[in-house]
Amino acid sequence: AGCEIYRHGDGFMSNGVAQQIEAAGVQVDLTLEPGLPARTGLLPEERATGGLPDTQQVPHRAYRPSRDDFRVPDPTRTDGLLMVPLTPGLILSTRYRDRRLVPTGAYGLLSLWTEPGAFARMLRTHLRQPVSHVAFALRSDIALRPTHWANVERNVRTVTQAFEGQLSWCTALEARDLIVGSTTAPPADGDPSDNVGERRASLWLQGE
Length: 208
Known about the structure:
The structure is a single chain. Helix content is about 25%, strand content about 20%. By secondary structure, it is α/β, with parallel strands linked by helices. It has a 3-stranded parallel β-sheet with strand order 1-2-3. Strands 6-8-7 form a 3-stranded parallel β-sheet, with helices on one face. It has a two-stranded antiparallel ribbon with strand order 4-5. β4 and β5 form a beta hairpin. The chain is globular, with a radius of gyration of 17 Å.
């Protein structure tokens, strides 16, 4: 069997890559990290060639991409590659504007090794909207860092409790079947008629 699940490093994706992995038989992509502006790289001190794409308009739900733009859902597609974006976290903070402190928000990746209090707040914010899934990338070396691993264990419990027993632990391919089987035509984000959203996302994915 060929490769059916794919994730590109550093959240990079392009139309060319999306077309190539679909042609190779990939069924589920776990690359996209929604809510981020285009960047030249992850860290200023790292040398990089090219850049990371603007994902500010990428849906937070799973979708089949347009063949012209991987960031745009194509509701007419019923087969082929399914984009399953990682769960973003809205980082709430304050900054001065006109000598006053005002709230601001910026998206980042909701990592399982995030400090548990911040993780819980960001997860609650994310779940205020209808979602089709929650998905997290987990570095294999996190288990070698005791503090980070303790955060992972506590945050996994937080995710489980957030869904009040309606959580399905599954592989990416099983998630595809659950997501695709729950609705024949993915509705617009925030549509209250979304069966998946009404169930408050009944599955959790862990992607490498």
